[in-house]
Amino acid sequence: MMQGLEGVVAARTRLSHVDGEAGRLTLAGYAAEELAPHAGFEEVAYLFLHGRLPEPAERTAFARELTGRRTLPRAAIEVLREAAAVNAPPMDALRMAVPILSLGRAENPLDDAIAAIAAFPAVVGAYWRFRHGESPVPIRCDLPHAAHYLHQLSGAEPSPERSRALETYLNTICDHGLNASTFAARVIISTQSDVLSAITGAVGALKGPLHGGAPGPALQMVVEIGSPERAETVIRAKLDRGERLMGFGHRIYKVRDPRADILAQAAEQFFSSGVDRRFYDLARSVEATALRLLRARKPDRRLDTNVEFYTALLLHGLGLPPELFTPTFAVGRVLGWSAHCLEQLREGRLIRPQSTYIGPMELHYDRAPVRFDRSDSTGVCVSRRS
Ligand code: ACO
Q1: Ligand 1: which residue has its CA nearest to atom 41?
Q2: Which of 145, 176, 250, 316 is catalytic?
Q3: 224 and 159 within one domain
């Protein structure tokens, strides 16, 4: 038995193909590097949900459908306000808000998928603003998806360069084979449950630090280094202590993670658009030093830059704090989760693997029957909030 299902094929999909040996990512038939930096998020969403790119009229109709679903139910706003009042982590707030999107609506897989994709930017944006003592900004229907997300966070209309950089990021990370959160979504929907339940489970899976949690620490390392001349000393010391360099290495990619290249180009473009590029230059020199030292330490194992290093660089450049890195990832990945749910409903079978039992056998229960009595209770029911 393979621990963690490594190497086990558990689904057939037309959505994305990860070729770890060649370092290639294919998104619904298109090379990620061709699609992600040029397509609009709405086009990619249509491609994933309908299996082909939209014609111009279809694209317009679909974009309208998405913008028409941006407004959150009042109950979701209230939950986000309450979550902010107790300083809940943003991923917890997102996980609390998603199920409420089903309130008052009849279950419909495609409709539920579109509702979730459309609502995620407003959920994260509204929560973030509550957390900072501000009110959510009114929904704007005249902005494309990526720009709308940045607007929901800051209340300011982003420049075309900022929107493009984020759009490239969302497209790049919208799907990646059978990663843990996508698998979680497929398991839930395989019972013929509903799409919003599956997406809620996927948000819970994504929250764990082993799944997409590296960009924060990667950013932290660059901040800690602070200036290019310190890179060698700090990185050497980390490696001497046996620490792993965050943002380097990958379980599946045996060569460079192709998403790192896409985001590196997006970052280069963004930081060349007149914004302060000192941090970008620092990060590039940290990367070069890290790669040189990793190659010297592990000559027989290629440890290259992964997607998280450039995620950190790009999202930091866009002004997003590390706390928003994983929720922003969810704003893009909800598309993959949704499309996998629709695919699983269409073509899949109940996912029900087996386990190897390693516990004791043939124990015998020979105690006298026990009844619940007052001594089992505190005798007081406590309400946590008045
Ligand atoms: N820095 C330093 N050394 C490393 C790194 C790293 N980033 N990655 C692997 N190594 C070393 C290991 O210490 C190990 O050395 P050893 O053989 O002397 O014990 C060797 O390379 C092989 O390591 P494995 O654990 O077998 O590598 P694996 O492929 O299982 O791990 C992983 C992949 C978890 C991503 C690893 O490279 C890592 O921890 N990287 C840093 C965290 C990170 O960036 N995570 C994000 C990955 S991208 C994503 O999840 C979307």
Answers
A1: 246
A2: 250
A3: no
Q: Assess contact for 339 and 219: CB atoms under 8 A.
A: no
By residue count, the chain amounts to: 386
Q: What is the CATH number of the domain that holds 267?
A: 1.10.230.10
Query: Mapping DSSP to helix (H, G, I), strand (E, B) and coil, where does residue 43 land?
Result: helix
Q: Are residues 292 and 149 in the same domain?
A: no
**79 and 175 share one domain:** yes
Q: Does 148 participate in catalysis according to the annotation?
A: no
18 in helix, strand or coil? strand
In this structure, how many other beta carbons lie within 10 angstroms of the beta carbon of residue 254? 14
The number of folded domains in the chain is 2
Q: What is the phi/psi pair of residue 370, to 5°?
A: -110, 135
∠ CA 185-191-192, nearest 5°, is 90
The ligand 1 atom nearest the CA atom of 249:
37
Q: Is residue 375 part of a domain?
A: no
| 52 Cβ inside 6 Å of ligand 1 | no
| pLDDT, position 385 | 56
The pLDDT value recorded for residue 276 is: 83
pLDDT at 369 (0 to 100): 87
Q: Which residue has its alpha carbon closest to ligand 1 atom 32? A: 250
Ligand 1 neighbour 295 (Cβ under 6 A): no
- Residue 322 tokens read as 């590390």
Last residue within a domain, chosen from 266, 290, 314: 314
Task: Say which of 308, 316, 340, 343 is annotated catalytic.
Answer: 308
Cα 15 from Cα 355, distance rounded (Å)? 28
Flag whether 353 is in a domain: no
| Boundaries of domain holding 282 | 216-314
In this predicted structure, what is the pLDDT of residue 382? 63
250 is catalytic: yes
Q: With a cut of 50, list the residues of the chain below it in pLDDT.
A: 386
Tens-place pLDDT, residues 91-121: 999 999 999 999 999 999 999 999 999 999 9
Query: For atom 35 of ligand 1, which residue has the closest CA?
Result: 250
Flag whether 163 is in a domain.
yes
- Residues 189, 225 within the same domain: no
Tokens 């200036």 label which residue? 227
- Atom nearest to 210 CA in ligand 1: 50
**Phi/psi at 246 (nearest 5 deg)?**
-70, 135
The dihedral through the CA atoms of 170, 128, 218, 313 has a sign that is positive
